[in-house]
UniProtKB/TrEMBL annotation:
Pfam families named among the record's database cross-references: Gly_acyl_tr_C
Keywords assigned: Acyltransferase, Signal, Transferase
Coiled coil: none
Protein's name in the database: Glycine N-acyltransferase-like protein
Domain N-acetyltransferase residues, every copy: 92-228
Length: 231
């Protein structure tokens, strides 16, 4: 699954990194893409330069290959101290609401609501995330109405609340519950949010997360295979 989903991006990175480093950005790319590298605050300027470098290169190489791509930069929010997000433990049972982990049975539901979803590759990716990483959803009479999960980087992603249940604070509650789970598992608490998703950005700030300079570069091919990759 991973080789197919990230095919275009991986081939492009391999092609670029085989060349001699002629610029500072290429040197940074070689340095930070080594196996086992750990990113800290001191790496942020370098990572940002590397992402800008790859974004421009991906656009150029995609145009050369007649590959129609959609490139998005997502903001990154991070909670520096390991504490329960939101300050107070969330009440897990409220009237008909029940908090629980997402079941693989809801892969299609999550995929249909995801900005980068609605294709076979994205369904496989959502399924992998649900089966392999922590998640949280709110069930109303047994049906998910709000959810969030961890992606393969361990970041909170795919936050969604069905339209009829919005403005009730469910999104912040599922994020708080997932943060509690992540804290108990000694996982870092951070997330990626689309540039245009202002409500989610404000919500995560209210939950105590701070915006960083680093951004997630998400590349999606609009070809018939609908390949997706990220940096």
């Amino acid at each position: 699954m991973r080789s197919r989903v990230n095919f275009f991006v991986k081939v492009l990175l391999f092609t670029l990194l085989r060349k001699h480093a002629k610029t500072e950005e290429e040197t940074l790319a070689r340095r930070y893409l080594r196996p086992g590298i750990f990113f800290s605050e001191e790496h942020q300027p370098g990572v940002k330069a590397m992402q800008n470098y790859f974004m421009n290169k991906i656009r150029h190489e995609a145009a050369q290959r007649n590959v129609d791509t959609e490139i998005s930069l997502l903001r990154t929010y991070y909670q520096g101290t390991q504490k329960e997000t939101g300050g107070e433990q969330v009440q897990r049972h409220q009237k008909n609401l029940e908090f629980c982990s997402l079941s693989p049975a809801y892969v299609s539901l999550v995929d249909d609501s995801w900005t980068f979803g609605r294709c076979s590759a994205s369904q496989e990716y959502v399924s992998l995330c649900i089966k392999s990483h922590p998640s949280c959803c709110v069930l109303d009479s047994g049906i998910p109405v709000s959810w969030v999960l961890c992606d393969h980087y361990g970041a909170m992603r795919m936050l969604y609340t069905v339209p009829q249940e919005r403005r009730k604070g469910l999104g912040s509650k599922v994020c708080s519950v997932l943060s509690e789970i992540m804290t108990k598992q000694n996982r870092p608490i951070y997330c990626h949010v689309e540039e245009e998703n202002i409500p989610s950005q404000l919500m995560f700030k209210d939950l105590g997360l701070q915006e960083t300079e680093s951004k997630l570069l998400w590349v999606r091919s609009k070809s018939e295979h609908n390949l997706t990759g990220s940096l």
